[in-house]
Design a protein that fits this description.
Strand content: 15-25%
CATH class of the largest domain: Mainly Alpha
Number of helices: 11
Distance between the termini: 30 Å
Radius of gyration: 23 Å
CATH architecture of the largest domain: Orthogonal Bundle
Strand order of the largest sheet: 7-6-5-4-8
CATH topology of the largest domain: Arc Repressor Mutant, subunit A
Helix content: 40-55%
Order of helices and strands: HEHHEEHHHHEEEEEHEHEEHEH
Number of strands: 12
Length: 315
């Protein structure tokens, strides 16, 4: 199991490095920057050839090229982000649940020290990189993989969902809702529905649901709230905002999370809701010196602390 685990980790690190690079990477550069390539030159060659075959068998296309097509340079490798994207088409609630869990695993691996190390090492030897070319990471699902399927089914049939929800005072409160929308925001899943306790639309974060979600058949006619708008629900949650400067043409993942963008010339200033300090910190770290955090102070301190830890790990 240890060998399989290390190989999977190496494949993820290799994929991230080949996605982030702006030019073709030679084998020697790959062996120097990607964690997991060990042993003699011949051993590394065999490992790399098997890794290429494994990635291609997964449908990941690796481009082969050189620095200058007019000269007989050493062959290099990269993965173009546009060829990495998947057209999922229509997917079932079960498939959505499984994809969410897979994205959770990818996110954990992509933000790990070894993966960030590859980007850091490439930059240190003068290889231009752009982590934004790594595809955006899907929202995490902290609950059971059945939760999304259960909620999606209840939305379709307008049945009740019954669950215990962790209140701001950390007390589990019984809730009964008719769900009307399933959404995600900044890495978290939310369900919105008519709360039968107050007869108003409320939004609940799935990772704050305690225990199982029960479906109860609704025998009455349900009228969908005509004035319901999901964007307004998320905007009215009272969440703190981070103020961040983003270089023009960069930080697309952060821009997608923002509630406002102000043109500042070479930079844009964006405001991003803080649903999780750690999640937002990870997004900021990916963009390097293309972003600058103004506030709040605890977010700035967390970014600095993570950068210091990263540097210390590679001194």
């Amino acid at each position: 199991m240890l060998t399989v685990s290390r190989k999977i980790e190496r494949l993820i690190n290799l994929t991230i490095a080949l996605l982030a690079t702006k030019r073709y990477l030679t084998k020697s550069e790959i062996f120097r920057t990607v964690e997991g390539y060990e042993g003699s030159a011949e051993t590394k060659e065999r490992m790399f050839e098997r890794d290429k075959d494994d990635l291609r068998s997964l449908g990941i296309s690796i481009d082969v090229g050189s620095f200058d097509p007019l000269f007989n340079d050493e062959a290099g490798y990269r993965i173009k982000s546009e060829s990495y994207q998947l057209d999922l088409g229509e997917i079932t609630p079960t498939e959505m649940s499984l994809l969410s869990l897979a994205a959770d695993a990818w996110q954990g691996a992509a933000f790990a020290d070894q993966a960030q190390s590859a980007i850091l090492k490439l930059s240190s030897i003068g290889v231009p990189t752009d982590p934004i070319d790594i595809p955006g990471l899907s929202p995490k699902l902290a609950n059971s993989s059945k939760d999304l399927e259960t909620i999606a089914g209840a939305i379709g049939s307008s049945d009740f969902l019954v669950f215990d929800y962790l209140s701001p005072s950390l007390l589990a409160e019984a809730r009964q809702i008719i769900p009307i929308a399933l959404s995600n925001r900044a890495g978290f899943w939310y369900v919105s529905g008519v709360d039968k306790g107050v007869e108003e639309v409320r939004t609940f974060r799935l990772d704050r649901i305690q225990g199982a979600i029960t479906v109860v058949n609704n025998k009455e006619t349900f009228d969908f709230p005509s004035d319901f708008e999901l964007d307004q629900i998320h905007a009215s949650t009272g969440t703190r905002l981070a103020v961040i400067d983003v270089r023009k043409g960069k930080g697309h993942a952060l821009r997608a999370l923002s509630t406002s963008i102000t043109d500042m010339g070479e930079w844009d200033q964006i405001k991003v809701p803080i649903y999780s300090i750690d999640y937002l910190t990870a997004q900021i770290l990916w963009h390097g010196d293309d972003v600058f955090v103004h506030e709040p102070a605890d977010l700035r301190e967390n970014v600095v602390r993570q950068l210091q830890a990263l540097v210390m790990n590679h001194e």
